[in-house]
User: Fold this.
Amino acid sequence: MTQTFRSILAVLLLAFELAGCSSAYQAALDRPSRSFLYATDRARSGDRHPADFYGTERGPVQYGRGTVAIPQRHRVANLEMSSGRMHPDRYFTLQSLDTLDQQRFFSELTLLRRTGGQSGVLVFVHGYSICFEEAALRLAQITADLDFRGVPLLFSWPSGCSVKLYREDERSVAASEGNLYRFLAGIAERSGPGEICLLAHSMGNRAMTSAFALLAKQRPELLRRFSTVLLAAPDIDEECFRKEVGPALAGKGVPVTLYASRSDKALRISEGVNGNPRAGEVKEIPVIVPGIETVDATDTSDGFLGHSYYNRSRTVLSDMFYIINRGLPASERFSLQPVDTPEGRYWRFRK
Assistant:
């Protein structure tokens, strides 16, 4: 094989590879997609690619809208993600981001609610070690699997996107509580009764519970705009939750559901780091606070760490469906059975 022939062959192979990449990205544009609105206090990275548009540093609150493409062969309770950007037709893909000023953001939210028949709003707050891109993909997967017909909203705080930055993430999520409070108040001011559902995961529960408790204290007239609060695997000190956080959420006229698990290895590690059990863990029994419905999700299926059952378990997703879409209490959700203890009642999934 001559050097000239090798060069021609290399050019042809490169052309075929590039054509394949182009076809894959075009396929992503043709896939089903989910649009969402967002607010974030992450600083822009300077990279214009949607996946890397926001970094890990703190910045002023920014607003925008985005679109996530969904794989044609997506399976419920799976978040098909790729570590690279080849063959995006097989994976959830953050296709686009458009920044909006605050006035335009709330105008679009109002327009979607009034003209699109999308009266409900789902606000998602992600957990520790999650980048903006993954948070957006998780929101898209959850709303697709729940067949949620309302407006998906993402609040993304500046997590460092690394498991090594736990303490830094603790400081970041605490610093975002005020911004999240103002974001929730702004949404509530423009919503009707019972239109807003809140969902937080892991460390994101710290900002969510603090923001909601502050809203209940300072803007109690807005509470009727919320339909439910879902706390998935909360990485919050259990004793603090039992004595302070939980009571600040309960009894406000807004149903609160807490999901916990004995199989949550991530929270077990957090317990070791912090020296105290977490509210999302189950020891003998899960944490019980009057006015909050606690669900033991130990027996649900969810990978190695057992920490992401809220989006990786069909059982939990089904339970959330009946809360978010039907507004059913635990006593009316067929998959649950009550467990009565001296400390009170909690719920677990039927086997």
About this structure: Residues 1-30 form one domain.
